[in-house]
Amino acid sequence: xxxxxxxxxxxxxxxxxxxxxxxxxxxxxxxxxxxxxxxxxxxxxxxxxxxxxxxxxxxxxxxxxxxxxxxxxxxxxxxxxxxxxxxxxxxxxxxxxxxxxxxxxxxxxxxxxxxxxxxxxxxxxxxxxxxxxxxxxxxxxxxxxxxxxxxxxxxxxxxxxxxxxxxxxxxxxxxxxxxxxxxxxxxxxxxxxxxxxxxxxxxxxxxxxxxxxxxxxxxxxxxxxxxxxxxxxxxxxxxxxxxxxxxxxxxxxxxxxxxxxxxxxxxxxxxxxxxxxxxxxxxxxxxxxxxxxxxxxx
Length: 298
Hints:
The chain is α+β, with helices and mostly antiparallel strands. The chain is built from five helices and 16 strands.
């Protein structure tokens, strides 16, 4: 499972590190290894903290996500230093290649929008791995064997939200004929056939002929299933996990729980089974753990 900001937004988390002051992209042609200079659009002062990332590989020996310090050459050129002291002294890192792809320079040591989204994605993915569920709607398209009845069980976990089309041996079933509930599609007992359809539908209902004739994979159903609204508890758990990643002192880790001696009785809370490792988040998501895996669909 892969989540991507389906439960919470960046604004839901209130303890992000300071944001990046400015960001600019630059091409490999902006890197001059003969002078160890990088051409920039911002006029960046010496000793300013910076970070690099790239769609390819950053110029060697720079590393993605490492904080470096600017040596200002002029308004449009910088060099890079390892420490503030080396920056002030003008001692630049020797750039040995220009890298590949499009590079990004983040000015400041705070977190970028991309980094914040990565934190959210990690929290949501962890919740999904633990619960064996996802808390948003997904499209499905499945083939089922006709059972010779008027009701066909799809067996989805979580529930069906909508059915947009049913094909029987590649022939579309008129949408007014059927309806659905949380786990199946079936002949609508209150179906109102359109012009030209009344005779066929009435004949089926009178003779009890099945809506879904027997066959191997002859019924195709498309629609959506899952959760129409993310539960409040899941949102709160995702926020806690993000806040915890930003500040590990805010919540209780299971490793921090110690043995308590009550008379001659010892309760070792540190050995209690945990889910995320953060007690406050586990309390919120434990009731959403599914006993059976979510059914895969195409």
